Amino acid sequence: MVDTSKGIKKVVARAVEKARREIGGTPESPSKGRLKWPIQCTVGPGLEGAIACESQVGFVNGSQGSLVYRGYDVLDLSAHSTFEEVSYLLIHGRLPTKSQLEKFERKLVEFRHIPGTMRVLMGFPVEKMNAMAAIRLGTNMMRQECTQLDVMEARRDPDTAISADEDSIAMEVPPSGEEHAIYEFPKARGQKSARSEKAMAAAAGIESATRLIAGTATITAAVARIREGRMPLEPDPELSHAANYLYMISGKRPSPAEAKIMDLAMILHADHGMNASTFASLVVASTLSDMYMSISSGVAALNGPLHGGANERVIETLEEIGDPGNVKAWYRARKAEGRKIPGFGHRVYKRYDPRARILGPIANYLTGSSERAKRLLETAHELEQVVIGDLGEEKGIYPNVDFYSGLVYTCLGIPTYLFTPTFAVARVAGWTARVLEYMKNNRIFRPRAIYTGRLNRRYQPLDERPG
Ligand code: ACO
């Protein structure tokens, strides 16, 4: 691989130009201004068409095949931005100034260190666990280490705290030592003004979001190292978020080109509307649980093969097909069995996924590096032609982001079991941004199910039941 990121920039610029021609210019505007609730909408199975909330974080235009973060076209962000800047944009709602970005980057570097989480995580048999389960465990551990809300609520407040020696717990010896060694209980949470509670929660939320964005990468890389029978590595403060992630997995500093490609993949995976994992995060947050618990639910939802798990299946599928010459026969057999093709189709996109428009050419650029990757790519190209030819016009089935991401990750040396976790490392930016937004105007999620079961059944005691 050419050791420069200039080549990548050219590939992206060309892909963006082509995408613009095919998509047809700037994305269409969604509805503006505040909506009037309740909203009339038609709901299909799987909540298709249901409107869960208002959002200004991002917009997926499925009929046009475009994606926007906070008003910026993801194609532009891919061409010009970085994952750090995109994370700031998603969480804060605006692009940072130079000093804001530098401060945010410093925080991310600082928050890569999660020694408490790592200590506990390494006590588990991580090497035998599903990687996503280990990451979920890690984000839960981070809660114990980092929950700012807990820390701030438990912080000594002279007006509202009572020290242990005033409490009714019987003690043989009066407490002594440093002042802060005296255990203190907050007297009553209700005594704080609602305003300061809100400000505290907001600050704690942004802090937690930043910690999660940094920490999830550390956990994921550590899980990879442990699974390979190696010790986790200390983060490298000189490297960008994406470069450090690759470094912490492999122990090698990536080339500028590799670092830029990882950064691009992270930008493209950072947010994506009201998808299943984002919705799972919001549902948990809406109960006034906390950011860490919410994000760990997002990780759980992303794990499934219909969602983030699809990128692993794509590589398995391409390996199974084996050669471009086998594609047509394989596809006919698969279709006859009524089985879906991993990496194709989307609930919202009925056109080509804009993220695949960038990742496809990147995969092309990269695959010169190995024979295996070349064969996988040629097979992928053939499969794409065959599936689009059959289902594109008729059913709006095109490649989605997962179709090429696995190939890109393979070329970057990321093992297959780490594809979905790598997706989570990026998506945590979108999950946290949407949780922060939803919490500003929270209402607990509580949809209904239509009961189609029986009623008025008479209870039969165990010894009266037949058989
Ligand atoms: N291959 C073949 N046919 C497909 C595919 C596919 N990958 N996806 C959808 N279809 C067909 C279905 O068979 C169905 O046809 P029918 O109307 O004749 O019954 C029609 O398209 C609609 O399919 P649904 O399953 O109802 O679509 P839904 O919106 O529920 O699902 C999903 C979307 C889950 C992404 C689906 O397309 C799929 O399973 N794709 C494969 C897995 C995948 O790639 N997931 C990653 C999605 S992107 C992401 O989560 C990051």
Written overview of the protein:
- By secondary structure, the protein is mainly alpha-helical.
- It has a single domain, classed as Citrate Synthase, domain 1.
- The chain is about 55% helix and about 5% strand.
- The chain has 18 helices and 5 strands.
- The chain has helices at about 5-25, 75-80, 85-90, 100-110, 115-120, 130-145, 150-155, 195-225, 240-250, 255-270, 275-285, 290-300, 310-320, 325-335, 355-365, 370-395, 400-410, 420-440; strands at about 60, 65-70, 70-75, 160-165, 185.
- The protein has a 3-stranded antiparallel β-sheet. Strands 4-5 form a two-stranded antiparallel ribbon.
- A hairpin with a 4-residue loop joins strand 1 (about 60) and strand 2.
- Helix 3 (about 85-90) runs parallel beside helix 18.
- Mean pLDDT is about 90; it is low at about 160-175 and about 180-190.
- Acetyl coenzyme *A binds near residues 341, 344 and 345.
